[in-house]
Amino acid sequence: MATTLPALSPAIDTGAYAALTAPTWDNGQPWAIRPLQHGDVASVKVLFRQLHAFNAALDPQFALSENWEVYFDTVIEEALDGKVLCLLAYEIGTGRPCGFAMAAIHHDSNMWRVNEWVEVEALYVADAWRGSGLADILLTRACDWAESVGQFVVQLYVTASNDRAIRFYQHEGFGETQAIMRKVLA
After folding, report:
1. How far is Cα 94 from Cα 65, in angstroms, rounded to an integer?
2. 182 belongs to a structural domain
3. Residue 122 falls inside a structural domain
4. What SS3 state is found at 158?
């Protein structure tokens, strides 16, 4: 059953990423994008839950844990503090959320020469908005943010059976660099 998202209260971008996230990018589109605000948290949680319900339908390993919100809240606090990028797309006029993106600097082991990059941790567009160009804009802004924080590599994970997402990311210039292999033992 689909969850109805509440309308957001209108707000003006005032954060450090305002140049990257100002609603002026809509180019006549019926949506605008802004950085996460305190009043947006409940809507982003609903969108995140929808994303992972979709992912879990493709692969049960991606189902959220019972206490996922505790960990998610930590990431949300980092986004509100400007340490992590979280963008919310909303419908102009109604304020209804229609998608979001999260990206963060990933730190890997110092054993590797390249041990830091930006990882797109979540990108989701509600069904009604797919094919509208919204995902392109959200991903572009995540890549712009990566450059603004001095990172020139952006990575993400996509479920192997999510053909539509794979085609989308390939169209956006992403290429496969690693395959994760799994063997279930029980």
Report:
1. 32
2. no
3. yes
4. coil
